[in-house]
Every structure is written in C-alpha cells, then in structure tokens.
Amino acid sequence: MQVDELLARAANGGRLDLAEGIFLYENADLNALGAAADHRRQMLHPDGVVTYIIDRNVNYTNICVTRCKFCNFYTPPGAADGYVLSRETLAEKFRETESLGGVQILLQGGLNPALDLAYYEDLFRWTKQNFKLALHALSPTEIIHIAELADLPIREVLIRLRAAGMDSLPGGGAEILDDEIRTRISPFKNTADEWLSVMREAHDLGMKTTATMVFGFQESSEQLLLHMDRLRRLQDDTHGFTAFITWPFQAEGTRLKLRDDTSPLRYLRIQALARLYLDNIPNLQVSWPTLGPEIGEVALRFGANDFGSIMIEENVVSTAGAHFMMTSAQVETHIRLAGFAPARRNMRYDRLPIAADLPRGPA
Ligand code: SF4
C-alpha cells in the first residue's frame, strides 16, 4: 500500500477499507492526513461556513448503577450527594437557555433505577408544553436501562419517548465499540452490539442521532478503526447519523489510570482519519471542551466542519478535568480566526439565523 495513493483516493471521496484505514492511521504523516481530510471537508461543505449550536447540557440525575471506571460523574443509589433535578431547577435552566438563544437541551444522566419510563414521558411532555426547545435526549445506554426497567422492547420505548417529545438521540455511551475494551473499562454497561442496535431502531423510526468515540483506553489501531467501521456499516443501511464527534478520555478523578496517548496530536490524527473513513457521515464536530478552543480551530483544518455547542453547562467531562467554557461570540471569533464564516444550526444541521438582538456575551 502507498500512503499517497490512499490519501488521494480518500480525499476525493473514495472509500477506504479497514486494512487501508489502519495502514493510514499507523503510517500517514499527520499534516498529509490533515490536508486530505481538509480537502474532503471542503468537498462536502464547500461554502466556507462552520456551524455551531446553542444548547445546554442538562444532567438531570447523577445517580447511576453502572459504575464505569472512566466516569467521575456518577454516585451510587443511596449516596448523600445523589440528585434528581426538580422541575423548578429544570425550568430555570430551560428558561435561561431560551434567553441565550438556545434551541435545544442535551438531556443526559446516570442509570437511575428510581426513574421509570413514565418519569421520562412526563418530563418530555412538560418540556414541550412549556418551552420551544428541541430534546436531544438520553443515550442508547439510558434507553436500554429504561427498557429493562419497563420490561419492554427498545422499539416500543423509543416510540413512546418520541410521542412524548423526544426529538433525537445523542450518541453517548459508545466509548470504543469493542467488547474487550468495554469489559475492561465499563463491565456493567451495554455491549457494542447493543449500542448499535438501539441506534438502528432509532434510525428505522426516522429519528436522527449522533455518533461518538472516546479514545485513550489503550485501544489498538484495529479497535479504533473497527469502531469507525461499525458506524459506517450502520450508516450505509440507515443514514441516521447526522454527525461524528471524538474526544480523548479525561482521567482526572476517575478510577481508571491514564495509560495512553490523549494528546492533541493524536486527537487530530484520529479526527482527520475519521473524516476520510466515515465517508457517509456528513458532519464532523470538533471537541473544544476537552482540548481548548485553539485546538478546535486547528481541528477545523483537519476535517471538521462544526464547532459543537457553546456549552452553557456541562458536568460530566468538567468533573473529570475539562474546564473550557465559551460564549457564542467567542465561538464565532474562533471560527473566523480559522478562516470560516460562522452559522448557527439545529441538531439536524439546518442553518439558523444569528439574531442580532440576542445576548452574545463578551468576546
Ligand atoms: S458513564 Fe454513564 S453509565 Fe457509566 S457510570 Fe457514568 S453516568 Fe453511569
């Protein structure tokens, strides 16, 4: 195999097979990989626009039975610091989100055995009755947990949650879609196939979802590429993923020691390769909350076309050591500094107007 030939093919939209993806990951020069990914990004998004969304990550409960070793957010049932956010607190957060021009709530939490399907149906109905916010809610892991509590098939749970107001499903809980790694870092969590099958059901019902990957768990090149390959195969069948987002494992305060390369350079390598390998997922989002806005700017030249969310609130990665926050004006500044024009979007990547009368915050 020749690196140059493979990069030229992938940069122009040609498909890489698994062995070729692994070969490029292990052998391509980082800048050459980035240039190929940038070319591919330009083909897919030729208008020089980089999008972002104003939404709020609301973690409605931190109580969880799953005890993932990489997680510093959860607390077990019965612990003194456990919480479930009240309707009053949620209403305040949702109102604030709307006043900042937010269009969506990213609603995620632990696997709390006290919250059943009826709790979520009530919560979603109440949200829709009182706010004009889209609900990008739960994760395959939470859906599996709710279905198990209700003793209902995944499909029925998704249908009921959608009827109650759920708009789309975030791709949380994927980490690395490889059961050897999952057994090591989160032995009580769903398998790779279970995660993919929830996504397939959601897509079959016409629901849009996102795909994620967390690296830094001593995964091999093959495990990394197989993760992308599984996403790509599902996307070939369903076309339900709107975007892919990858970020490095944040170890601070977790029970898992960091024994892997989670540097910005590895992030850029993985993201560029993802742009080339995931030829059927239209959007790639940078992960500035974990790496900082400057790396976010660079990542826009390594295949990404979206700056993610302004992150009004984020508890999970910030508990484990990621502490970056930005206003929409700051996000737009970084997008411009990277040479692009900013535009707001919703979860489906429809462009939204940037209203001049909305509070923008200091640059
Ligand atoms: S990652 Fe999610 S499922 Fe795992 S312990 Fe944390 S909150 Fe629970």
Strand content: 5-15%
Shape: globular
Order of helices and strands: HHHEEHEHEHHEHHEHEHEHHEHHEE
- Please report the number of helical segments: 15
Q: Return Rg in Å.
A: 20 Å
Would you state the CATH class? Alpha Beta
- Report, as a whole number of angstroms, the end-to-end distance: 47 Å
Describe this structure in words.
This protein has 363 residues and is of the alpha/beta class. It has a single domain, classed as Aldolase class I (TIM Barrel, Alpha-Beta Barrel), CATH 3.20.20. Helices cover 44% and strands 14% of the residues. The strands form 3 sheets. It has a 4-stranded mixed sheet. α11 links the parallel β7 and β8. α2 crosses α10 and α3 crosses α11. The termini are far apart. Bound molecules: iron/sulfur cluster (SF4). Iron/sulfur cluster binds next to loops.
